[in-house]
Specification:
By secondary structure, this protein is mainly α. It contains 4 helices and no strands. Helices cover 60% and strands 0% of the residues. The two termini are 15 Å apart.
Length: 70
Amino acid sequence: MKHSLQQKVGKRIQEIRIQKNFSQQELASKCNFEKSNMSRLENGNSNATLSTLEKVCDALQIDYIELFKF
């Protein structure tokens, strides 16, 4: 099954979040998002804006390119 780009990016956010030992709630708080929004983002059910991805990258302390290494 072919995954969409938003699903791949969401999965990547989840992988990095787990590597960095953040709960979904912790990452959502750092980004100023609701946990439900973070869940939709990680599940690929939300088409993230660039500003949303920027907040996630800042919170995870990663370069944007890391989100696209799949």
